[in-house]
Design brief:
Elements: E1 7-8, E2 20-23, H1 28-31, H2 45-54, E3 58-59, E4 63-66, E5 69-72, E6 80-81, E7 92-95, E8 98-101, E9 109-114, E10 128-133, H3 147-150, H4 154-157, E11 165-166, H5 177-182, E12 183-184, H6 187-197, E13 201-204, H7 213-225, E14 229-234, H8 240-247, E15 252-256, H9 262-269, H10 274-285, E16 289-296, H11 304-318, E17 324-328, H12 343-356, E18 361-364, E19 375-376, E20 383-388, E21 391-395, E22 397-398, E23 401-402
Parallel strand pairs: 10-13, 11-12, 13-14, 14-15, 15-16, 16-17, 17-18
Antiparallel strand pairs: 1-2, 2-9, 3-8, 4-5, 5-6, 7-8, 9-10, 19-20, 20-21, 22-23
The chain binds iron/sulfur cluster.
Length: 420
Amino acid sequence: MRYGALGLGGVAGGAAAVYYALRQTSSWAAATTATDVFKNDAPRGVLWERWRERGWAREGRHYLKLGRNVQCRLCPNQCLLEPEDRGRCRDRVNKEGTLYTLAYGNACAFHTDPIEKKPLYHFLPATPVFSFAASGCGFRCLNCQNWDISQRKPEETKDPRGDPIRLRPELMPTLTLEDVGRLSLFPEDVVAMCQATGIPSVAYTYSEPSVWFEYMIDTARLARAKGIKNVWVTCGYIQEEPLLELCQYLDAANVDLKSFDPDVYGKLNSGKLEPILETLRTLKREGVWFEVTNLVVPTYTDSLAMIHRMCQWLVDELGPDYPLHFSRFHPAHKLTHLPPTPVDVLVEARAIARQVGLRYVYLGNVLGVEDAGTTFCPGCRHPVIQRYVYHVTRLNLEGSACAECGTPIAGVWEGPRAAG
Ligand code: SF4
């Protein structure tokens, strides 16, 4: 039996802030070399028993039984798993012909963030959002900022030994590192944390929440029933059936549109472009508010011609009102040899987006551009929301309209529903 070596990645201060990210200090590199499913890699013996006792292993949804084999139908990878195999995302295994998620209730990172950090600029501005993740992702982005949880197995981020412990608000001041490794955060615990602290929304974020679908959707369903809103921060790589199920409970999403070139998606992300475009179409059709993020990575996604094509597609297919966030790349993971994105490239990308007709375009991870986070009224051009980094510095809205001229501003501006 092997457990990850656990270390506390960071603890953020602040009244409502709770953040723990568990990081393993060795052997991740070997684990990230797989390009397909992980053969014969499911947890076994005592480790498997303890995982089940903790409630961290649950039967998955959206899969096919094929005799003793299973096919996961959650994301377009559609992993075909023989007994004891583990899916490409690291979260899902075949045990005796049944697909299990290993990620249920075992959050490896949680934090209270400003909603602007997701980024969502047109959704309940200046409110906090309780944000959490389990490990895992179906992509292999060379530039991943959160590779230390996205490219890890659940068993590398959590430790099922010792007494079980569940997160409760009153435990926060006394939690030790050891407690955090053993900690469970089940859907009812997430909702209780929000209710105790008055936080209006939950975000499924940091890694790729689609691959811990069961954990996300059970939490979302419960949160919705209690009047708490649900935010999905995602690469958008999900099959239509689970997405439609999820849309019933979603209030907002931020989708990473990583580039507009299938070859670049293959090289940079080990993914595909078309499923992401389909996700955006579905979100629109289902009436879920969403914003799009495009990270501009030098030499990979900084072609202005490609950015032009992407912006044109967004306007033509989705209309001018969904915000687009161009995000500045900073060297990370396997792309530490590249420089940060030059700011003038971002400014030029923003000009292209505006020129093709997008009404709300922002620059993220960038300092020194005064209006990088400003929402301008499409009617009178006055600023209606001004921001500095993740903080709203001026709000000039009357309800959902510009306070200067009354032009409606697209977004979700009202507060959370009353608790049911
Ligand atoms: S979620 Fe995607 S990567 Fe994970 S097992 Fe299912 S199909 Fe494979």
